[in-house]
Predict the 3D structure of the following.
Amino acid sequence: MRKNTATLVIMIVIGLLFSSTVQAQTRSVYWQQWDVHIDNIDTVANRFDVAERYDIDFTGRFTFGSVVIPLNNIEAIRNVEVFEDGQALRESCSGSGGTYCVENTDEGLSITYYFVDPINNDRQQFEIRYQVTGALRVYEGGDQLYWIAVPSEHFGFPIGSSTVTVELPEGFAPREGIDPVETYGVPATVNVQGTTITATANEPITGNESFEIRVQYPHNPAAQAADWQGTFDQRQTYGPIVSLGVVAIALLIFVGGLMGVYSLWYTRGRDPKVGPVPTYLTEPPTDLPPAVVGTLLDERAEVCDVISTIVDLSRRGYMVMEETQKEGLFGIGSTSEFTFKRTDKPLDDLRQFEKSMIDSLFNGKLERTLDSLRNSFYAVIPRLQADLYDAVVEAGLFTTNPSTTRMMWTSLGVIILVIAFLLGFGLSVLMESISAALLCIPVALGIVGVVALIMAQAMPAKTRKGAEDTAKWRAFLEYLRNLEKYADVQEAAEQFDDYLPYAVAFQLERSWVRRFSEVATVPIPPWYFPNYGPYGRRYVAGSPYHRPNWGGSSASGGLPGELARADGGMSLGDLSDKMGGGLANISNGLNTMLASASSVVTSRPQPSSGSSGRWSSGGRSWSGGGSFRGGGSGGGSRGFG
């Protein structure tokens, strides 16, 4: 019994929570009528009364309403009163039912009124009354009242109908043909009957539409202009001129800045022009190492250049790579493990970046697994890259370190962006009082900064020798990229090992290895030891370097390049046939090693609309304060919760 009772209570609680959630999601407000009445206009003291009257259908449960009126172009709002269904609410900020609270906030004057009783799926009427001081505009040609009766912010809920009525004092009726009367926002019909002006919306007001009215009437010489009007009129009068001047300055900064950046690149970052170069070259044009060539072509020392140095050092006999395959669980599949091993060849003739590579790779040891470099080798890559940048300068290919040049010009772009940001922050304070066009100046400066950042990448300038070598090496790159177009793949087989480091530097290693997958005469690189299958063998680190015995006589000594071309050795195809794994075993092993090396050495620990209504008799023009919509008093937001 207790168990059933507990289950029933839980179900009731869940039902109540579900119903309240659904209710919260389906709450809505529909203004059947939203009328605004403006009267008791004192043209001398510059004040008038406003009454907002709402007739509202509520769907869901509501307990309070909110009115926020910005104090722009207003001196003060006083004498606030709130009525619910004709009953006056009491002013108090206690939050209890039947009260209302008036506060000054950053958004303006806030009026929060709490219903006498919560309203749930019902219809109710409210009236908000208040006195506005310092919102009338005083001009010799005619004074004006410009009021935003229905603000655009009514939280998306529609308004069925709306009428705005303005009761001017006796003797101040708009003069036909002189004093204009207009509405803005929703289309409306304006009717002027003496001192009574009525504007009626022609259609329902959608969730983001406003309803504004602007009335001009005969000037009262005794009228007191509001404190804000002088600044407002200056902005309206001189604003277009100031805006035009600001836009001109912004264009000058924009065009001048872009031309300045281009001029700097043209005089300091442009590479010298070189004479005609063949479309392709079948041999390396100079003796530059692959990593230096890769850095020369794209002006960056990248990971592929580091990997190409490992392959190049192996090809030249300073180290070997050994691959071991381990069967997977239950003999399904296999995984490859790679080990780098030093040979007995001295390091005396190596360049500085090559010595740094050997030192960083082996760390004083004779052998090291590729996996042991994971999450650690990345820390030495910046030093290796710095050595490569020094190498291209020492080779006379660049006048200065490309990385340093980029950093210097990048810093300039960052400085310009910081100045643009600070300038924009400072000018934002003046935008409202002077011109919104002031924003164009920091925007133009910011664009120049962004362009400077982009152009910084192209600022490293090659020497004439560097430009000429670049053109030649690009011709060699064209040959490697489109080998079948310029040569017979089978005849080029002997170049496989010699050109592999360059293919790595050019990021063509996969296509370069795959290209020879069906050529049976491609010799296995002597520095590559696939330690599996019937002909697998190991290399003893630090021992004299011998050419692997792939079924022929063993020959000791000699350079790897020469050994790779030696007659009588087994080819990749021959070895793969005898191993029964196909050429894919060898080519996949090489590709796996290169891809794994690139991944391992970089791995790290995871860390609104225009005028809509007009007095049918017209009015020739506004006496002051601008001729266009904008700058009206009132508005803000209205909502319920």
The chain has two domains: 27-219+623-640, 290-398+462-602. The longest helix spans residues 229-269. The chain is about 35% helix and 25% strand.
